[in-house]
Amino acid sequence: MLEGKVQRGAAESTVEVLPKQLKGCANCERRRIRCDRRRPHCAKCDKKGLPCPGYDRRLRWVEGVAARGHLRGRTVPTRPSSEDKAAFREEDSKDIFTERSQLDKRKDFMSSVVVLNAPIAQATRPCKYPDSLTSVFMDYYRLNLAGLMVWMDSDENHYRTQVVPLAANQPAVGFAIMAFAAQHGAMTVPDESVAENARDRCLRLIQTRAQDMTARLIKGDDLNDHGDVVDAEWMLASILIMCNYENARRRLQIADDHRRAARTIVNLFKCQSSINNRDLFAFLRNQLAIDDVLAATTSCDLPLIRNAVTPAPGSEHLLFSRYLTFLHRITLVSADAVDSHPSISHLRSGLTMPLIQSEFEQARGATLMAAGRLGLAGSSMSLDFIRLVEVYHNAGLLYSLRCLDYATEHASERIVAVASLFDQLTGFEDLAAFVQNLAWPTFIAGTECHGDRQRQEIIAGLLMEIHEGTRFSYYLDAVNFLKEFWAGEDNDWRPLARMREAIGQRVLVV
């Protein structure tokens, strides 16, 4: 691989040929120590007791045109708009997604994609597979994985009906599906590194398209034609699949970085007229909102929380849309209290317990009405879906009671909600049909049974069933977190979550 740098002007983006020496894992880089790059985990992380994030590609972001040089601190001009706009740019060898506000009193987003810690040669290495093998991956994803990425699987699942067909013309989607299917199925393939190769090629294609967008936006062009939104759709679909791929491998920081990239694509296109009547874009945006809102509930990362994508305006007819919108309002209030240390009673002004109960009741009704429009009434899944709605209703109440410090003041409401949540969680007739949706409410139930050994065993068992049903290994981290929490004296789970996130061991239950 060539050494040195090749820089061009900002209008062309900045490209750097990566050095021969590979970077270590993110933990060692952050700690500024030499990483031995041992696989699967480096020795430094093992010795410190940290989960090694590995040496994989990820999508990240920073602000400005350049991180150094005469363009440092400068922003890229974009065409004025009354709504949020986005642009792409690079920082030396990095294409990075970012968000930036305040440009001539207008909101503009400066964004670009980066691929870190992966040599260019690795991404461009020949990686051809027989058509029969590609078909195996597509079939595996269609049959086993597409249903794990939505609230309720059906013949109308867009991951199956629209995203899979995209792979025929959009290689990045095919590579994303190949990586996820190969990793999840642990299939025997001619190349044992097929998942990693497919991942790298997928992210390289996303990066290349982002560079093209950068150049156009710097010239003042709008990304508002049919081809642009088609590109946005395949980029979003690919990134969301890669988020699941990284989550399944317990690479939570990398998955967070990918979600930041997806978030910026949404912010770039959400106000463009070209997305009108684009069902796939709307679907992918709302899929990102589900992940963003639930991921924020167990995080202390303020930018992640404040910049989370929420359900689109006018999407109240979708399953759990109103629920997620209000849940994120609770998360924002709680995060602001932790950040600025004011009295929570001052910040929660207006969020009284009756209002919280009313909002969640209305959200429950909206979701049940949405389910009715989908023709669930009278189906074999209808009773279990009602249980799912009740599960989220009670989990939302308990999360709000804890995060707004109402748990002691409204102890009776908490007791009732806990009992109801456990009744519903253990009452599913076909747990497998909704197993992909149960991790978050099961985790919340686990945070509310401190000191109750019997309920703790129920929660640990449920999370193990969820892990077995999805094969997503990061759910095991949630079990370990709860066991540590149960063994402690504090009956509030949030301090432990903050402490663990600070050392790179965040809990995620999306």
From TrEMBL:
Gene3D superfamilies: Zn(2)-C6 fungal-type DNA-binding domain. The keyword Nucleus applies. One of its GO terms (biological process) is positive regulation of transcription by RNA polymerase II. Keywords: Nucleus. It comes from the Eukaryota. It is found in: Nucleus. Residues 24-52 form the Zn(2)-C6 fungal-type domain. Its main location: nucleus. One of its GO terms (molecular function) is zinc ion binding. GO terms for cellular component: nucleus. PANTHER family: TRANSCRIPTIONAL ACTIVATOR PROTEIN UGA3. This is Zn(2)-C6 fungal-type domain-containing protein. It comes from Colletotrichum melonis.
